[in-house]
Amino acid sequence: MASVWQLQEAKQRFSEVVRQAEDDGPQVVTRHGQEVVVVIAFDDYQRLFPGRPGFKEFLRSEPHFDDLDFQVDLEVNRSREPAPEIELEP
User: Fold this and answer.
1) How far apart are CA 40 and CA 50, in angstroms?
2) Number of domains into which the chain is organized
3) Residues of the chain with pLDDT > 90: what percent?
């Protein structure tokens, strides 16, 4: 069964929260009496979300732009007047 920690106590005893998550299972953290997060062991996380790339792999993966349909309007009607001059105060 998961242990419940108040946020302030979890911050002060974070190493123990992590150890208990590894040894005893999920650890619930509350703020103002409301459950806000669960700390779980990494092995448990991998079982819950198999096959997901890590953050580094996600950042390194390239998007497949060939699958996107870009439509470019080359007939953009913009004003040909120069931008107005403004005075900047020192």
Assistant:
1) 15
2) 1
3) 47
pTM given for the model: 0.57
pLDDT value at residue 56? 81
Angle at 72 between CA 68 and CA 73, to 5 degrees: 155
∠ at Cα 51 (45, 52), nearest 5°? 70
Find the domain containing 10 and state its range. 3-62
The answer to whether the beta carbons of residues 30 and 5 sit under 8 Å apart is yes
Q: For the domain that residue 20 is a member of, what is the CATH number?
A: 3.40.1620.10
CA distances from 81 to 3, 54, 78, 88 (A): 67, 50, 9, 21
Q: Name which of 57, 54, 30 is nearest 42 in CA terms.
A: 54
